[in-house]
TrEMBL record:
Protein's recorded name: indole-3-glycerol-phosphate synthase
InterPro entries found in the cross-reference section: Aldolase_TIM, Indole-3-glycerol_P_synth, Indole-3-glycerol_P_synth_dom, Indole-3-GlycerolPSynthase_CS, RibuloseP-bd_barrel
Organism of this sequence: Parabacteroides absconsus
High-level lineage: Bacteria, Pseudomonadati, Bacteroidota, Bacteroidia, Bacteroidales
Gene: trpC
NCBIfam families, sorted: PRK00278.2-4
Residue ranges occupied by any Indole-3-glycerol phosphate synthase domain in the UniProt entry: 6-265
Length: 275
């Protein structure tokens, strides 16, 4: 049987969470989150909607599929450069073991940018939403492949209570059952998190099923995002024409020496080739 990395990540996350909760108990983390309730927040959905390029630029040092991309990447270099060069939002990988990130990266990023910040991690419980709020996130990722619909709705509802927007990620049509009224953005991940197989066309393949579902369930109106494996500005142009309004890109920027510069020329190509 093929080894499923997603199962390994979730198993590791559960142990990690036990340690984190021992170090900072739930009620303390909730308190830290509430202290952040008054700070200004930035809507990722609005930022993507009003942009012509709608790029969510990701800060990711390594990944299980690609290994190290940029081992010495520093938040204070890259996040301000992402903002200066036209990103609509930033995604910060906070998983340490598999992606080389940390909650400290998110906290630092918050001090350096007014872009909407997405906490990118493997969220299983509300505790992680409190962490996200405490560290300055504006939005959180929920991954349908690791949640059941009830937990997903509970987490999305809690996120909204904390003033966090929700990006729900799906890879397969069946995962649409995790949609709920609290989902602000629906992301189609072009990468299968179990096998790492990544095809940009996956978003287009799944789109008719997503549109049919949204047509049927008219109360859900999430903004459509495409995630992973985007290397060519032409893909962004093509996917925008089909209705996508957010493009989550990590590796294409992070594997270069100057991710901000790479973002700048990527956006330039996108906008100069669009009608
Ligand atoms: O580096 P890429 O191929 O541009 O992909 C970015 C982002 O979509 C990817 O990091 C991602 C999408 N969903 C995730 C869930 C967990 C961790 C990482 C991810």
């Amino acid at each position: 049987m093929k080894h499923d990395i997603l199962e390994e990540i979730v198993a590791h996350k559960k142990i990690e969470l036990q340690h984190q909760k021992k170090a900072v108990p739930l009620h303390i983390m909730l308190g830290l989150a509430s202290e952040n309730m008054d700070r200004p927040t930035y809507s990722m959905r609005e930022s993507l909607e009003k942009s012509d390029s709608s790029i969510i630029a990701e800060f990711k040092r390594k990944s299980p599929s690609k290994g190290w991309l940029h081992p010495k990447a520093v938040v204070s270099d890259i996040i301000p450069a992402y903002q200066a060069n036209g990103a609509s939002a930033c995604s910060i990988l906070t998983d340490e073991h598999f992606f080389g990130g940390s909650l400290g990266d998110l906290k630092k990023a918050r001090q350096l940018t007014t872009l909407p910040l997405l906490r990118k991690d493997f969220v299983l419980e509300s505790y992680q939403l409190f962490q996200a709020k405490a560290m300055g996130a504006d939005a959180v990722l929920l991954i349908a492949a690791i949640l059941n619909p009830e937990d997903c709705e509970m987490l999305a509802n809690t996120a909204h209570t904390l003033g966090l927007e929700v990006l729900l990620e799906i890879h397969r049509e069946e995962e649409l059952k995790c949609l709920n009224p609290y989902v602000d953005m629906l992301g189609i991940n072009n990468r299968n998190l179990g096998s790492f197989d990544t095809q940009v066309n996956h978003s287009l393949d799944l789109l008719p099923a997503v549109q049919a579902y949204l047509q049927k369930e008219k109360v859900y109106t999430p903004l459509l995002i495409t995630e992973s494996g985007i290397r060519d500005p032409k893909d962004v142009i093509r996917l925008r024409q089909e209705g996508f309004r957010g493009f989550l890109i990590g590796e294409t920027f992070m594997k270069t020496e100057n991710p901000g510069e790479t973002l700048r020329s990527f956006i330039q190509t996108c906008t100069s080739h669009a009608d």
